[in-house]
Amino acid sequence: SSHLSTSLSSKVGARSLPLRKGDKVRIMRGDFKDHEGEITKVDLKAIKVYIDGAVVEKADGTKIEYPIHPSNLEIIDVDRKDEMRDKAIGRKGE
Questions:
Q1: Residues in contact with 7: Cβ distance below 8 Å, sequence separation at least 6, in sequence order
Q2: Model pTM?
Q3: Over the stretch 23-46, which tens digit does the pLDDT of each residue have?
């Protein structure tokens, strides 16, 4: 889970929500601070999130996505394509 932005928090009626692929987030801490992008992958086992554009170049020149902990993120926009997610947001907002 990550905190919601202040405008989104008042709209949804919740303080935080679980992260899903497709959500737009802002990185609040670390090397990519203030970078905004869409979540491309969520690793539940390692508790890491991969964001579009947060890329590191290795010594051999290959580029890999940088894993970021959810506590260092702020959700800007929620992907509401899933019916189950809408129900969860509705429960959380009540």
A1: none
A2: 0.87
A3: 999 999 999 999 999 999 999 999
